[in-house]
Amino acid sequence: MPHLAIRARSSLDPRRTTCAWVESPLQALSVIEAHAAGRLGRRTVLTPRRSVVSLGPTLDHLRHLQLPEGLSIGGGDGARAGRPGNGRTWVVGDAFSGQVQKELALDGSGELVVVDDGRATLHLLALIADGGPLLRARAQAGVGRQLLARVAAQRLRRAALEHRLTVVTAYDVDPGVRERLEALGVRLRRHRFEWLREQARPAGPEQPTVVLGSAMVQDGLVHAPPYLDWVLSRVKDGPIAYYPHRREQGGTLDALRARTDVRVYRPTVPVELSLRGLGSGHRVVCLPSTTATTLRAVLEGRGTRMDVDPVLDHWWTHLANSSVRALLGGADLAGTTAA
């Protein structure tokens, strides 16, 4: 897909320090890619939310790589949600976050940049384009939360109209959504993990087939038996490596650990980091997810086979509403390709 068009010139001031607030490992990696691509100015300070346990190992790993010039990683929370003063650029990854939305409600001024936080980014962009409140696809929000979500949406749309909103993403944005965003004034930028692809590669697992786990069972969105059947269907060709989602725990993992033909890994960093050394001798199997897009981009040109399987109708539980099924079901991602 060609790079997304830009309709307005960025007002980012390269002389000012950009402040990035991250609440997940992928957000941290997305900030680094955006900075390395020159989308955030010359100096960026990445501030992690201290209460997110999974961020620590990821940031330690990233510090041992060759960070792009001008980017530094702070020690933790600091100012309100990392929100800068003096009109400096503020970068966030999760505009559905209560922390972020409270800050937007207090002050929607200044240059704003949104980076990826998984496939939820696509839902966010559709909401901005169509004027809906910024609520997650499966959110059960009270009156106060809905009001905050509407105010946050208004703040981002105002920033777009004033050409103060930039989105830096690794995703293909639906052409209709992209057109509406650009008409609104959003500046869309694309990256393909160019910085990460230049870093030294770790060795891949000895098992040629790698199955990426999903949190949908843990989240109550799909039933456990068909999910386990899907994982175990891949052992027919030999032992597999299973990389759980960071939120997976309990019964599904216990069942897989009991198998001699499944090795369950416990990576402490996102698979974009831990599996970036895969090559043509490996095959990756996953459900439609963030990694179906991001890992393919990281491995581009390596010849790694990627199988993205759809979520079948009988897997879903009653908690998965139509919005969740449309977002996570996988009609747009399912298939087999070579990365």
Produce a short descriptive summary.
This protein has 339 residues and is an alpha/beta fold. It has helices at residues 25-36, 55-63, 98-106, 120-130, 143-161, 175-184, 194-197, 224-232, 251-257, 271-274, 290-298, 322-328; strands at 17-22, 43-48, 71-73, 90-92, 112-115, 165-169, 187-190, 209-212, 240-243, 262-264, 283-286, 305-308, 335-338. Helix content is 32%, strand content 16%.
Describe the fold and architecture:
This protein has twelve helices and 13 strands. By secondary structure, it is of the alpha/beta class. The protein has a seven-stranded parallel β-sheet, sandwiched between helices. It has a six-stranded mixed β-sheet with strand order 10-9-8-11-12-13, with helices on both faces. Residues 1-10 have low confidence and may be disordered.
Task: Using brief descriptors, characterize the structure shown.
32% helix; alpha/beta; 339 residues; disordered N terminus
Major sheet size, sense and barrel closure: 7 strands, parallel
Q: Beta fraction of the residues? A: 15-25%
> Roughly how many Å is the radius of gyration?
20 Å
Number of strands: 13
What is the global morphology? globular
Q: Helicity, in percent?
A: 25-40%
The low-confidence parts are 1-10
Tally of alpha and pi helices = 12
Query: Structural class of the secondary structure composition?
Result: alpha/beta
- Give the helices and strands as they follow along the chain: EHEHEEHEHHEHEHEHEHEHEHEHE
Largest beta sheet: strand ordering:
3-2-1-4-5-6-7
How far do the termini sit from each other?
15 Å
